[in-house]
Amino acid sequence: MILYPPWPAGVEPAVPIVSYPNTWTHTPSLAPIRRPLTLTEATGPLDLSRKLPCGEPNLAMPHPGRMAQGQLIHVAGRVLDEDARPVAGAIVELWQANAAGRYFHPIDQRDAPLDPNFIGNGRVRTDADGAYGFFTIRPGAYPVPVEDVWWRPPHVHFGVIGPASLTRLVTQMYFPGDPLNAYDRILQSVPDPAARDRLLAEALPPDQVGSGWLGYRFDIVLRGRRATPPA
Amino acid sequence: MTPTSQHTIGPFFPRTFFQPGDNDLTRLAADAAPSTRGEAILLRGRVLRAGGVPCVNAVLEAWQADASGHFRHPLDPGAAEADPDFCGWGRAWTDAEGGYEFRTLSPGGYGDRAPHINLHLMGAGLMRMLRTTVFFPGVGADPVLDLVPPERRSHLIARPEGAGLFRFDLLLRGDAADETPFFED
């Protein structure tokens, strides 16, 4: 039996957000209705391997020998539940801007260069220890085109599918020490400072990461814990 | 441990993550044969935001039981009887008019649950994903639908538009009487 306690106070973003117009036009004005857990919410697709094929975890070298521009990084971590148990077989989707802060996406028409060697998205599956990893580049910051302009700090989008419909998570990872973090209206919408800190990757000591890539660790915790706490 | 905070999916969810057939719940993959154990239906609609403006580039994910009301999942005591060819999960994104569609089989009910499809909606400006449930005409008692104030329940019932065709529009924000009801789990 898995329990899904409500989100602890301060962990969920507070909306709407000043100078983020979409949060004012898209967020429902009525509060969501709490519903009981039934099989539909407690189950989810366990094997999407044919529907969502997982690919090459190296986003920085989409073609052999042709590297993306930017600081090469390795982002790895584990997907866990609230009991710190690994979530094996979860699908992890990652997408991000290139080193100039531009997305390979038709909607992003900003005047910043595209990188012919960087698409910036990938999909992998967690192993038996809940572990995942991507080779990529550190994304650039970019301005949010609103009247009172603000900047998104370098960040990486993550989506996790599994093990239940209810555990579906979309979040973002940030880089520790970036001065823009303190001004980011999206990161700062999370009220609890400890919850914000958990969205920052941990920079690994250089002697742990070798000469090819800078290393970052980012663990993701999905909802769900056992009805009986682990001994 | 505390769960990781949710964030918006943003406006740039990769188009390259979508493959043909992702919005087809009847197949395990685009090249797999569709399940025919049930009544094929097309569920389509529009996602609108404040002012009735189309919500473009939003992502919808659907999850439902098969036509006999089973899930291919160990939590379902009837999992052994679940349709092995039915995926039950699909993903779609909204076009310039806010439109989406899912191809699926009419879901079966189970226990005290009426036939339904659960939808997740993610989009720019949605810091938390929205969760709602699609019911079908003639729905009776259901422990989730019964939680919704009676005057709002019709927003959760798909409208028939012809043989095998149902419409389910979502209004994220508007007059309280018109907003689609959403749930938290």
Commentary on this structure:
The complex is a heterodimer of chains A (231) and B (185). Chain A is mainly beta and 231 residues long. Chain A is 6% helix and 26% strand. Chain A has three helices and 14 strands. In chain A, strands 3, 6, 11, 12 and 13 form a five-stranded mixed β-sheet that branches. A four-stranded antiparallel β-sheet of chain A has the order 5-4-9-10, with no helix packed on it. Chain A has a two-stranded antiparallel sheet with strand order 1-14. The two termini of chain A are 15 Å apart. The model of chain B has no long low-confidence stretch (mean pLDDT 97). Chain B is mainly beta. Chain B has no helices and eleven strands. The radius of gyration of chain B is 16 Å and the shape is globular. Chain B has one domain: Aromatic compound dioxygenase (Protocatechuate 3,4-Dioxygenase, subunit A, Sandwich). The two termini of chain B are 18 Å apart. In chain B, the strands form two sheets. In chain B, strands 1, 2, 5, 8, 9 and 10 form a six-stranded mixed β-sheet that branches. Strand 2 of chain A pairs parallel with strand 11 of chain B. Chain B: InterPro entries: Intradiol_dOase_C, Intradiol_dOase_core, Intradiol_RC_Dioxygenase, Protocat_dOase_a. Chain B: It comes from Humitalea rosea. Chain B: It holds the Pfam family Dioxygenase_C.
